[in-house]
């Protein structure tokens, strides 16, 4: 993970120097990312892995991430247009309520931060500051005034929900206690008072035993949190429909992950899609436990990625339909670093590593392994000879007491 760039020193010396000297000695502007792209690998992608997708408020456009870049395309599918480029890793885009901007996570500053980007590409704003934190799953409040995101101090620290005003500021932490409670995947319905999210104790654990996550709701007016699920396979990555009637979330059943849908008014649940994308609840879930997904503007379907493709899954239980896409990927790479090293390809050469050398009981011969094969030679000036013709690894030779056999 990139770290802070070293800041230039010497302001006092410059202040005392003549104006011309200040101009001549002024250090060059620091680049946010230390590695400048020197090559580009381009290809056309029609499938992807761990793609977060969101539906525009008017239902006409999708935004998604692919290979560290952000794309938009018609909601029916088709050719995608890239909104970002370069060596930075950009991910987890979400539309603003007015559909004019997206919030996303990027390390273009040298570390993870939340950024705002207008769809006309005329305005780019860094919402969070510093390069020492990790951010997961930004989401707009329904009034478009704030972005709620899960923030942690780095690997090993449980993320907490933070809220940032789009006009600036240091943000405010929403849930502070207990200190080891991880809260990720903020989601809103039409009422901005309530924030749905997934929570667990600690950041992660080895040999995890389910459940790991459960859903909860945070009341912004009362400052209280209420658990909302108790599933053995965990519950994570909530999404609410624009009309406030439906809740979708991920959970594991048997050896696969699926999406459940709940009618909020009655609490009735059923499977919406099973199986889908494999979840990440045994790991740190640095891109959340599932990729982001979204209800359509009319609340009649869910748009989600799994199996390398995008799908429109009807809420009424109908068959899912694929949303085809084509994206021109341009992967920026650093300089081509090559080291020249001569490899001797002569029929006879010096073995650089001899293993397990063992002298015979009378000290006249030596058995050893070189290049994974067993050799024996007269000691000390004999010529090594293969002891077998096998095409297998031969190691740890041991002489018989009479010196006539080798095991």
Description:
- With 407 residues, the chain is mainly beta.
- The chain has helices spanning 11-16, 19-25; strands at residues 39-45, 53-55, 61-66, 69-74, 78-79, 81-82, 90-95, 101-106, 113-118, 124-126, 134-140, 146-152, 160-165, 172-173, 181-187, 194-201, 214-219, 224-227, 236-240, 246-253, 256-263, 269-273, 294-295, 301-306, 309-314, 321-323, 325-333, 354-359, 365-370, 373-378, 385-386.
- Strand 12 and strand 13 form a beta hairpin.
- The longest helix has 7 residues, at 19-25.
- Mean pLDDT is 90; it is low at 1-28.
List keywords for this structure.
four-stranded antiparallel β-sheet; 2 helices; mainly beta; elongated; single chain; 407 residues
Structure summarized in a few sentences:
The chain is mainly beta and 407 residues long.
SSE map:
Layout: H1 11-16, H2 19-25, E1 39-45, E2 53-55, E3 61-66, E4 69-74, E5 78-79, E6 81-82, E7 90-95, E8 101-106, E9 113-118, E10 124-126, E11 134-140, E12 146-152, E13 160-165, E14 172-173, E15 181-187, E16 194-201, E17 214-219, E18 224-227, E19 236-240, E20 246-253, E21 256-263, E22 269-273, E23 294-295, E24 301-306, E25 309-314, E26 321-323, E27 325-333, E28 354-359, E29 365-370, E30 373-378, E31 385-386
Strand order in the sheet with the most strands: 2-3-4-6
Question: Helix tally?
Answer: 2
Low-confidence spans: 1-28
C-alpha Rg (nearest Å): 29 Å
Termini distance? Answer: 50 Å
Helix content: under 10%
β-strand amount: 35-45%
- Rounded average pLDDT: 90
Shape descriptor: elongated
**Sheet with most strands:** 4 strands, antiparallel
- Strands, total number: 31
**Structural class estimated from helices and strands:** mainly beta
């Amino acid at each position: 993970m990139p770290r802070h760039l070293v800041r230039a020193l010497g302001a006092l010396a410059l202040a005392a120097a003549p104006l011309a000297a200040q101009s001549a000695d002024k250090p060059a502007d620091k680049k946010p990312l230390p590695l400048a792209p020197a090559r580009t690998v381009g290809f056309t992608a029609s499938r992807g892995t761990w793609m977060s997708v969101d539906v525009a408020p008017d239902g006409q456009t999708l935004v998604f991430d692919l290979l560290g870049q952000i794309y938009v395309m018609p909601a029916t599918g088709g050719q995608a247009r890239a909104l970002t480029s370069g060596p930075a890793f950009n991910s987890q885009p979400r539309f603003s309520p007015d559909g004019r901007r997206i919030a996303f996570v990027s390390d273009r500053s040298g570390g993870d931060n939340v950024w705002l980007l207008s769809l006309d590409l005329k305005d780019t704003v860094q919402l969070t500051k510093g390069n020492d934190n990790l951010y997961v799953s930004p989401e707009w409040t329904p009034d478009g005034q704030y972005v709620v995101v899960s923030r942690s101090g780095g690997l090993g620290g449980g993320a907490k929900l933070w809220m940032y005003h789009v006009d600036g500021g240091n943000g405010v932490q929403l849930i502070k206690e207990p200190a080891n409670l991880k809260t990720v995947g903020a989601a809103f319905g039409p009422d901005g008072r309530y924030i749905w999210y997934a929570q667990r104790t600690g950041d992660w654990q080895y040999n995890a035993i389910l459940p790991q996550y459960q859903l909860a709701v945070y009341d912004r007016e009362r400052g209280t949190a209420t658990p909302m699920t108790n599933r053995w396979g965990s519950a994570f990555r909530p999404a609410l429909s624009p009309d406030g009637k439906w809740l979708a979330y991920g959970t594991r059943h048997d050896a696969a992950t699926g999406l459940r849908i709940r009618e909020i008014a009655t609490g009735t649940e059923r499977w919406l899609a099973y199986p889908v994308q494999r979840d990440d609840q045994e790991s740190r879930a640095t891109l959340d436990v599932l990729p982001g997904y979204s209800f359509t503007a009319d609340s009649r379907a869910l748009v989600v990625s799994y199996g390398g493709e995008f799908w429109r899954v009807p809420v009424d239980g109908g068959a899912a339909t694929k949303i085809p896409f084509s994206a021109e990927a341009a992967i920026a790479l650093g300089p081509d670093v090559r080291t020249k090293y001569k490899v001797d390809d002569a029929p006879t050469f010096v073995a650089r590593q001899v293993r397990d050398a063992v002298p015979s009981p009378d000290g006249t011969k030596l058995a050893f392994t070189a290049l994974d094969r067993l050799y024996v030679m007269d000691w000390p000036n004999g010529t090594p000879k293969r002891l077998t013709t096998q095409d297998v690894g031969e190691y740890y030779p041991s002489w018989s007491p009479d010196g006539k056999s080798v095991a």
